């Protein structure tokens, strides 16, 4: 096959491929091995689905209905491009007996529109607005897999992990925030086997790019904002300043995170203690890093004696902290796109990362909002969080949630009612740097 993201190569017999995929699916569910002709993207998705505790006879759960659904999608960024989606995809979906679907970054369906009879059939498997179709909830499917791997994907028939979905074929592409590059959700076309064609994959990719272009036009001018440091969920931070986007190395990312939290500045000795474990690093090593960073940022932003940022730099981590302090938990959870510099082992960064994550997850557990807990539990950083899954099972005891909780408790061998031990990989420094 020339393109591994396309479900059927030219000339392939769809019926024969379906039979082969069903045999492969049965082999995987029984023995855990993936034989040919399963594509690598599908094989990897099946393995992720199995690790998440998804069963082949499972079903999607509906999480938002009525007013909650209307309020949530009215505030979602993709609401602004729904007219574009309908213009580009609506007629194609209706005429071809397909569906147009749009999901958020957690795989939750926001809109499902299109051919009436097809919608009625889709309703029977809960392919409806408000239902969660993430990989870790219902296994391999185009919208859920597209947001999981962050690229356009096509899923054909028995490539779907859940058996009741295997009569369908779908193609989906992620849609990104044009300012930050983060995934907002995905646009999807769902229907019959006729969608297993390169054109459908190219079509949703083009629709997603058109949506990103329109979102860029609707976004406020970037010059209105001051310097912004994005460091959540990424090992290398990005600094947006004066219309430029500067991709930082890991060490420069750590330095800017620390300096953004200390407008009064830090001495070279304090930075050494914050960045390096032990006393084996010479001060000249840090000075060299700061010289390179100053050259990268340009004149005027990084001052010395003490080292400080000459202009106030906002960070996404600080936004989450402020929202938590004011009790705006939903807004804080929405702004939290992952652990702070997750690959960093700098002592002060480790403390900051753990403190922020623990504060947010503690607030989520205390508030017991099922949607917020589910959003955390279905992220890469929350999929093994036993305390969160226990809290979620307490407020939403659906079968997939109970199954995942049981699997986690068995895997970690932690008795019910007892929290797993937590460790902290940071040591004290000469003054508080958090």
Would you give an account of this structure?
This protein has 434 residues and is α+β, with helices and mostly antiparallel strands. The chain has three domains: 14-218, 2-Layer Sandwich (Beta-Lactamase), CATH 3.30.450.40; 228-314, Winged helix-like DNA-binding domain superfamily/Winged helix DNA-binding domain (Arc Repressor Mutant, subunit A), CATH 1.10.10; 316-412. The chain contains 17 helices and eleven strands. The strands form three sheets. It has a five-stranded antiparallel sheet with strand order 2-1-5-4-3, sandwiched between helices. A four-stranded mixed sheet has the order 8-7-6-11. Strands 9-10 form a two-stranded antiparallel ribbon. A hairpin with a 4-residue loop joins strand 9 (302-303) and strand 10. Helix 12 (316-325) packs antiparallel against helix 13. The longest helix has 21 residues, at 198-218. The protein starts with 13 loop residues before the first helix and ends in a 22-residue tail after the last helix. This is Transcriptional regulator. It comes from Streptomyces capoamus. One of its GO terms (biological process) is phosphorelay signal transduction system. Residues 243-309 form the OmpR/PhoB-type domain.
Condensed summary:
46% of the residues lie in helices and 12% in strands.
Explain the layout of strands and helices:
Layout: H1 14-31, H2 40-51, H3 66-75, H4 82-95, E1 99-104, E2 109-114, H5 116-123, H6 135-138, H7 142-149, E3 153-156, E4 169-176, E5 183-191, H8 198-218, E6 228-230, E7 238-241, E8 244-247, H9 250-261, H10 268-275, H11 283-297, E9 302-303, E10 308-309, E11 314-315, H12 316-325, H13 329-335, H14 347-367, H15 370-377, H16 386-395, H17 399-412
Parallel strand pairs: 6-11
Antiparallel strand pairs: 1-2, 1-5, 3-4, 4-5, 6-7, 7-8, 9-10
Helix pairs in contact: 12-13, 12-14, 15-16, 16-17
